[in-house]
Structures are given as C-alpha cells and as structure tokens.
Design goal:
Chain A is of the alpha/beta class and about 550 residues long. Chain A has helices spanning about 35-40, 90-95, 110-115, 135, 215-230, 245-250, 265-275, 305-315, 335-345, 365-370, 395-400, 405-420, 440-450, 455-465, 490-495, 500-520, 545-550, and strands at about 20-25, 45-55, 65-75, 100-105, 120-125, 140, 160-165, 175-180, 180-185, 195-200, 200-205, 235, 255-260, 285, 300, 320, 355-360, 380-385, 390-395, 425-430, 450-455, 540, 550-555. The chains are: A alpha/beta (about 550), B alpha+beta (about 375).
Amino acid sequence: MEPATGLKLDFNNKLTLEEFPYIIRWRDDRCKRCGQCTSVCPQGAIRPAVKYTRVIESGGDTPKPRPVRRIIHVIEQVNNIDNYCTGCAVCTLVCPNNAIEPEYNPQNKFLFYKNRGGEGYKRGGRRNDPGVSTLDRLKFTRISMLTDPALDAGRHEFRVRSYIGRILPPEDLPLKVEDGRLVLDKSSGKFIPPVREIFPIMIGSMSIGALSPTMWEGLAMGVAYLNEVEGIPVVMCSGEGGFPPRLLKSRYVKYFILQIASGYFGWDSIIHTLPYMTEDPAAIEIKYGQGAKPGDGGLLMAPKVIKLISEIRGVPQYVDLPSPPTHQTQYSIEESVMKMIQSMSMAFGFRVPVYPKISGTKTAKAVLNNLARNPYAAALSIDGEDGGTGAAYNISLDKMGHPIASNIRECYLDLVKQGKQNELPLIAAGGVGKKGNLAANAAALIMLGVSAVSVGKYIMQATAECLGNEYNRCNICNTGKCPRGITTQDPKLYRRLDPDKVAERVVEIFKSADVELRKIFAPMGRSVELPIGMSDGLSIDDKAIAERLEISYAC
Amino acid sequence: MCRLAAITSAKYFSPMENILALETMKEGHDGSGLGLTLKDLGGKFKELKNYPILSGICSRKGKKNLDEYMIGLGFKLIYEWTPKIRPVRGIIRRDHYFARVYDYPEEWQEKSFKDKEDLLMNTRLTLRRMGEADESIFVFSFYPDVITLKEVGDPLELGEFFGLDKDNLEAKVIFAQGRQNTNYQIYLYACHPFFLQGYCTMTNGENTAFVPIREFLMSRRFPGYVGYNSDSEVFDHILHYSVRQLGFPLTYYKDIITPLKWEEVEKRSDREALSLIKQSLRPLCIDGPNMVIGFVPDGTCFMVHDSKKLRPGVVGGVKGKYSLMSELCGLDKVIPNRDKSKDIYPMKYDMVIVSPEAREVKLWNQLQA
C-alpha cells in the first residue's frame, strides 16, 4: 500500500509506459468497471487495480473544504516488459462503452529492453513494414484501347488458370503424325510429368500446428467449396508438420499440397497413410526455407503442441518443436534435389508434381539452374522477405531476406535464356496482398514471370479478421494466445472463430480475386492464357527499379 | 489497322491485282508502306525455280559490300531483276532495288535442301546485320521461287513507282499488305508479309502477347528467330516453328495460337496429343486482335483469327482463283464474278485452307477435327 503522504518510492528500475510500443488510453468517465477488457487481454497487459485516493471536497450550506479518503477502481497498464501491450485492441472490441484503446507509440524503445536473458526476442506473424512495397508500386500501363481493342472482362470468355508441374518442352513431346493427326507415341516410353491446372493464387503453407483447428477447418472447407461448387481450382498448402490421417484418406486431399518440412515432421503419418489414400494430393512441396526467416528452421512453440499436433508429428505434448533450417540428411543442392524430389515422386507413383520451396535469396538462381536440369522437378517456389511465419526471431523477420520482385524477375529471365520459361513454373510468395491489393500484386508477379503466387497472411487476415495492419499488429501468433483464435490451440480462444464464416470469406476472396484478375487482364488484351512474362504491360515510377526489373519507367 | 490482300491462283497474275484490291480498302491503310511477297513465280523466273532469289534494297555502298560478300561465299549471280523505276512524288527513291537469282556455291551443290535452306537463311541474316546500322542493305528473303518487295509509300503509287503495271513480274501466290503505321516508326523490316524458309504470314492487327511469344521463340535458339520489328513477325515464326521445326500438320497452327478449352479438348480424337501441346506451347497462345493469312512451302494458303474474332477476314473465289482478304470490297475487286453466297467468313474455331493452285477451299473446324 502506498504511504498516506502520497509520496512514491523510487521506481527507477522500472520502465515508464513511454517505453512501450502501445499505451493504453483508458477513460475513467466512461468505464463501468465490467472487467471484460482485462479478462480478454492475451498479454495480461492491463489489470484492474484498486487505488487509495485523497481529494478535497466541500459541500453543504456553508461549504468548508475537507479531505476525503476513498478507494477507487481503475484499469491500469502493466509496465512489465513481459506483459507489454501488443496493440491487438481486443480490449476495445469487448468494451461496451468505448472506454479503452491502445495507442501506438512511435517513440517506443521496445527493442532496447525486450531481448532478455541472452535470448533474442521472438515474435509471430511477419515484419511490420509500413513502407510501400515494390509490388504495390507497379502499375499496368500497356492498356489495349484502339490499336488493339481491349477485351471485355464481363462479356468475353475468360479463363484465369495456371499449371503446376513440369511441362515438357515442345521439342521433347512424344508425338507422331498419323493420318494428318498428332498421336501420342507410346512406343517412345517417355516419362510425361504430372501437371495440374490450378487457380494462379494458392493458399500458402500455414501448418496445422500453427493455425487453430477452427481456422484450418474454415480454410479447408472454403477450398473444397471453391473447387466443387464454384469450379475454381484453388489449392492450399498444408504447411509443415503433417496432415491429419483422416483428411489424407479423404477425397479432399486432392485440393491440398502436402508440405514436407525440413524436420520431416508429420512425414511419418503421411507415409503410414499412403496405402490407404484414395486420391493423390495436388502436389508435394519440399520446404527448404521460408521468406520470413531465411536460413532458419521452423519453430512451433510448446503451448501449441496439443494432443492432435503431438500425434501427427509423433512428439510429446507441450514441448517446443524447432525444425532445422534445412534437410539435415542432405549434403548439397544436387543431392537434395535429386534424392528428395525423386523419392517423393516415387512415393506417389510419379503421379504428383514435387517441387521445392526456398527463401528468396541471391543464390536462388543456383537452385533454379539445378532444378532446370532435373526432369522430375515440377516447379520452384520462392518465398520473399515479406513472407510470414508462425514464429521467428525479431531480427530475422525485420532484417533478413530478399525482396521477391527482383528475385523472381532474375530467375524468370534466367529461364528465358535457357528456353525453359514454360517448362519449370515459378511460384512467388512473400508480401502478396500485403496492403490488400491481392489481385494486383498477383497479376504484377505473373507479368514479371511467375506461373502462380502463394498467399498466406492476406488470406489469414481477410478470412479471420486478424486485427491490425502494417503499423499495428499484435504479432503474437507464436504464443498460442491469438486473441482472434487464428493461431492458437486453446479452445477458449479458437472457439471465438466460426469456421463457417472463415470458409465463406475464403470463397468470397477467391471469387472477387478472379473478377479483379479479369479486370486487369482484359484491358491488357489477355483472356485465355495468363500474361506470364508480359513485362511490357508493367511500369514503375522509379528508374532504378524499372531498370532492375527490365520494365518501363513511367511517371 | 493494316489491310491485307492475298490471291492464290492456278494461272500467273500480276501483283497489281493485289494492289488494286488494297486500293479499294484504302480507308484501312494510311499509305505508310507496301509489302509484297510473290511465290511460284512466272516469266523469266519460271525457268529458274531451283535457284535462290535474294530480294532487297541497297545503297550504293551496300551493293558493293553485298557483292563482295556473296562472291566471297561462292554464290554466282545468274539473273537480276530490277524494277523500272518511274519517279513518283512522295516516294523517296533508294539506290538499288533488286531480286537476284544466284547459283549455290560449288561445295553446296550436292547438299540436301534442308542444309541449303540454312545456308540461305544464315546468308540473309548476315547481310541484314551488315547493313542494319547505316540502313545500307535490306534483305527480305533469300529463297527459291520467292520474291519480296517492300517500300514506304501508298500501295498504288508504289505499284506505279516499281512499274509493276508494265513489268511482267507475275506469280501464282501473291500476298500484299497496305500498311497503317500506328505503333512504330516507319521501318522497312517491320513491314509485312514476313517470310522464313518457305513460311510466310501477314497479319491484321496488333498482338498483345508479343513479348512472351518473342521471348519463347528466341529462346528456341533457332538463328532465324530474330528481327521482331513488328509485333506480327512472331506469327510467321510460330508457323515455321510448329510446322517445320516440330513437324506438326498445318491445322495445329490454329490449335497452338487459339487453344481449345479443356472440355473441348476432351471431345477431339487427338485429345492426348492436344493436351500436351496445350500445356507445352502455352506461351504461344494469342488473344488477339489478329487475323493471320499465310502460306506454307507447298503453296497452301490459309486464314485464321483469334478466338474473339476481333479482326475478321473473308475468303472467296472460283475454282482456280481464290482470294483471302481483310475486307469484302477487296474480294469484290479481285473476283467479282464469284458465287457470293459461298464466301467464307471464318468463325472462332475455323481455319480456311486453300490448296495449291487454288484447287479447292476447305473449312477446317477446330472442334470437329
């Protein structure tokens, strides 16, 4: 209890609220002390407190000032660095009287204090970067109008589809002419790699352990609906760490890309279920890296390793699950690509495209060239620096990685030099739809040379209404306390999320992206095939970027 | 938008017929150029069918370099045709216009025609490069039985300029394009028709997918896939690539540039091959707005257009003479006495194929193939 004099002790060893990234604005006059805000705060950053206060009052017929001592109830922000306010604003959401809200403090010194005990600060989500990304600066400037009439997005026949899988070059097709017709030359015995037709925007790898059961279920339902009812072949990547055997055996597995992570988590359950699978998955993605933390392994933190996850991954419950940065059983790219791709292809009877996913990096071209020479490699997925993650060190999220635009462009132009631009599809990820411009970002990447894009964060934010934006996001996906119920395994939290609503939003997002892509492609004069590599359609208001991406400069 | 006039006939005729057809379509070209390709030549050239003809334009300096180069290679000049130039106001006369017939160098005499074709192409490309910087040499084709003429100006005036109305230059297949120069500076190499090793096309419209198609073709590493001063040159190279290089029957040209939907592919008897082509040649798909008229080495002519039919065309005629035009008025001019009810306006899935010597017209349908 504070001394009656009102003097405080010396609290010099504590932090002031000015040091924190968010300061809670609480309004005494509006608050009715219901306590909802403090009970929902995932961080415990606010708490109800009892204060002893002394005021001078005067009243009555002959007012005479006199001191009154009172006990008052307040909401106060904790100034303990471990319980910092993340700005998730769930308190604002539950407050019946708009009496509380977090306010961003741009002067914060959070990172001065957060790395404790010799351990770098880890956070979930991805980098908060309020700057405008290159993808958002790209404009579509080759608009058909009179010399080449624009197509009508609403009237003409459109088909926004792409392929995943290695496509044989025309010179290598096992064809022969018979009676003026081309027929398959079966005597050639040539291997024709499996190819899937997909919607060019796919849901990127978000693992079952990272997402809550309701979130994952919602996404999966949405994807199934898109395929079976809407006829839009959207595929979704399982993320690392396995797949529930029940789903593996179901016919819906054909809409999923199974990811094999560097720790081989979950591979066990897949290989044991293989004999009982009735359908092939859409593809197999071998994860070598991710854009958010290049050269760093995955990390599923202990609170998220519940019974289901521990069963799929074959590990004890509630232990941290770090996966290594690369496949530790492999020695080199050559070996890795050869062994992993060939063995995965073989496991699925050479009927499923198998491709690796790497982080955007200066060495991406080396990997690409190696894949280009491997007839079993089905694609290359490159995840740029804006990619997301379940958990990563702050330093990795903010400072490591290669932006996707130039990385992809370089790789595409390299394929063009080899004449393999259609043979080996490129998939881009990392920052697609970061500012909400999903279709525009995807179209820009396609025109820079990719066959498809992978999107994680945008889908998560838009389908589950993840709180915040690039200035303000709670980024506690890794702690298992996600206030929205997206990335948590705590039933109390994930029950907040209605999987039906998530599924509904997934469907809405893809249908509207389909419309928006048509609205971009039609004025560019493209309708039947994607404008892959149609770089003359793009411009940017920065000479250096224009030169780097080999597109035109417009201002 | 350029206007196109192609005529194929069993008898020899003068290119003036094409030019007059273009004249009726005058609204559609601005007189910024004329391109002519003649195949199956008559007159003096009739006796020289097996010898390659180099068509082009040179400055005085260019002519000297060209002669030196050709002699150096061992080519022997047999015959030279030069137009009897009649000065016309507005057309800037260049020093030398020519169609020269050469005999192959000694060491090439016994080689296969395929080898000779490569020699001719490489020679043409080298000459082109030699004269490109200072515009001292333009060569449009170097191939047996084919002449190409190109110049900047109005088609009718150019016909007069070259004296084509008086000259006995004639052929059985003649392609002509009256140019409308909307996109680029007036540059002779950008003028249609484009010719490569027996395959020739001209196009009515732009090509929105020009860049990826050019990149794809150039990355095939075939030395002849160069130039691309116009966004239509790719159509000729797609034809050359699919028919000559890949050995596909001609109708697959339509399947490549306007691929069927998967549901439609399923209905075709060659569905297995077609699905592989659809994926493998995806970058060569066009979305318009184009109508393409072309011929292949055996003299077969054809017309196709994009699946939206954004630039339609018409084919009509009588047995022994057919005309493939971008406008009906051109057709009326060339073959007025035909049965007009039999005119063909190819639709989305159609390819019109006129057999050599204009014997018959076939309407090939992509769906029912």
